[in-house]
Design a protein that fits this description.
The protein has 377 residues and is of the alpha+beta class. Helix content is 29%, strand content 21%. α1 (2-18) runs antiparallel to α2. It is elongated, with a radius of gyration of 38 Å.
C-alpha cells in the first residue's frame, strides 16, 4: 500500500509540473507534505513520536501469498459415485417392528387327476405344505459430530453438503447389503450344489446367456411341475460393461464369424453391480427372474413400517439464551451445539433386513437365481 501511495505522489507532482507549477512552489511542497503525512499514517510512525521504531510490514511477496491463501480459495465438486440400481432384483416387504416376521408361500399345485374305472373310487390326493420364511429388520446408523467453531469458520461451504453425503452413505450401504445377497459364499454354494440348471463357470457370452435362459426355462416347482421362469436380469461385474453392450447391440452372434442371428440380445436387462469382486478375465455374472411377472422371488428386502428411506437427525441443543439469571430463556440456534463442548451432533439411520439361512444363504427362493463364476473361456 505504501508503494502505491509513493507512486500516486510522484504522478501528482509530475501532473502539477506539467500544469506550470514551478519547482519549489508552495503548492507543490504542500502536495508533497500531504502524501508524506499519508505515508507516515500508514506506517504507524508519526513525526512527533518519541518511541518510533521499525515494525514488520507486508511486502509485495506477502500480498501474493495472502491473495493465494485467503482470496483465491474455493471448493471444487467431488467425485460422482456409481449407483447400483438393485430395485428390480428384490421383493419389498415391511415389518411392523423389530420382531421376526413369518411369510408362507405355496410353491406347488395339486396332484394330477387319475383315471377312475367303472364303479371305481378316486384315490385321495395330497397337499404340499407352504414354504416358510422368517426374517426381521435391523438398525443401521452412523453418528457424526462437528465443532461449533468449524461450522462457523467454514467460509468455503465444505460442510454445506454433509446432509446429502449422509444420505448417499445410507444408500451406498444398502446397495452393498443387497449385493451381498448373491455374492456371499453360502448363496453361491447353494446354487452350485443345485447343479447345471443353476450355475456354470463360463464367461459372459451370447452362448452362455442362451444356456442361462434355457436353464430358467426348465425350472420346476416342488412337485417337479414346470413353472413360468424367464431370464429377466443379468447382473454383471463393471468390467463386463462393454461385453453386455456388444451382445445387446449385435444383430449377429458377436463371438462367431458366421451369419448366425443373435437371438439372445433382447428379452433381458443388464444391471451393473459396482460391488462385485473379480479380476479380469475371470469376472462373475448372475441371472435373475422378474418376480413381478412370475412370483418367483429370489430375494426379499424388508423395511420397518414407517421407515421407507433413511432418516437424518440432529441432537437438540441444550443451550438457552438469557438476559438475566432468573428470567426466562430462549432456544439457542442449533449451530451452538451442546452446552459443555459446543459440538453439533448429527446422525443418519435406516432400518432394513432380509432372509438369512445357514443353507440357503440369502436366497428367498433359489428358483429365481443363476450364477456363473466366469472362469472358463
Amino acid at each position: 500500500m505504501r508503494r502505491i501511495v509513493s507512486m500516486l505522489s510522484d504522478i501528482r507532482q509530475l501532473q502539477m509540473k506539467q500544469a506550470g507549477v514551478k519547482e519549489g512552489d508552495a503548492q507543490l511542497r504542500e502536495t508533497a507534505n500531504k502524501f508524506r503525512w499519508f505515508d507516515n499514517a500508514l506506517s504507524g510512525i508519526t513525526p512527533t513520536s518519541t518511541n518510533a521504531k521499525l515494525e514488520e510490514v507486508m511486502t509485495s511477496a506477502d500480498f501474493a501469498y495472502a491473495i493465494t491463501e485467503f482470496v483465491q480459495r474455493q471448493m471444487v465438486p467431488g467425485y460422482k459415485r456409481t449407483r447400483f440400481n438393485f430395485e428390480p432384483l428384490v421383493w419389498n416387504d415391511t415389518a411392523p417392528n423389530f420382531l421376526t416376521v413369518t411369510r408362507y408361500q405355496k410353491r406347488a399345485g395339486l396332484e394330477d387327476l387319475e383315471f377312475v374305472g367303472q364303479k371305481g373310487v378316486a384315490r385321495p390326493g395330497s397337499v404340499v405344505e407352504a414354504t416358510k420364511r422368517q426374517y426381521r429388520v435391523y438398525r443401521w446408523a452412523k453418528q457424526f459430530d462437528f465443532s461449533m467453531e468449524a461450522l462457523i469458520n467454514d467460509d468455503l461451504g465444505y460442510f454445506e453438503d454433509q446432509a446429502t453425503l449422509m444420505g448417499e452413505a445410507a444408500r451406498r450401504t444398502l446397495e452393498k447389503y443387497v449385493s451381498r445377497f448373491y455374492t456371499n459364499a453360502t448363496t453361491i454354494a447353494r446354487l452350485t450344489g443345485l447343479g447345471a440348471l443353476y450355475m456354470q463357470n463360463g464367461r459372459l457370452t451370447s452362448t452362455r446367456i442362451s444356456e442361462c435362459r434355457m436353464a430358467f426355462g426348465q425350472r420346476v416347482d416342488t412337485r417337479n411341475e414346470p413353472i413360468d421362469a424367464d431370464l429377466a436380469y443379468i447382473v454383471y461385474h463393471r468390467g463386463l460393461e462393454d461385453t453386455v453392450r456388444q451382445i445387446q447391440a449385435s444383430q449377429l452372434v458377436p463371438e462367431l464369424a458366421t451369419n448366425a442371428e443373435n437371438v439372445v440380445r433382447t428379452g433381458w436387462t443388464g444391471i451393473k453391480d459396482p460391488y462385485i469382486a473379480g479380476a479380469a478375465p475371470n469376472l462373475p455374472w448372475y441371472g435373475f427372474t422378474n418376480h413381478r411377472q412370475n412370483g418367483i422371488r429370489p430375494f426379499v428386502l424388508a423395511r420397518r413400517q414407517g421407515m421407507p428411506a433413511p432418516m437424518l437427525m440432529r441432537k437438540r441443543s441444550d443451550i438457552e439464551r438469557i438476559t438475566s439469571m432468573l428470567g426466562g430463556g430462549a432456544t439457542a440456534p442449533p449451530i451452538l451445539g451442546d452446552f459443555d463442548t459446543g459440538n453439533v451432533v448429527v446422525k443418519v439411520e435406516d432400518q432394513w433386513g432380509t432372509y438369512i439361512d445357514d443353507t440357503e444363504g440369502n436366497l428367498f427362493d433359489y428358483r429365481g437365481a443363476y450364477y456363473s463364476s466366469g472362469t472358463a473361456a
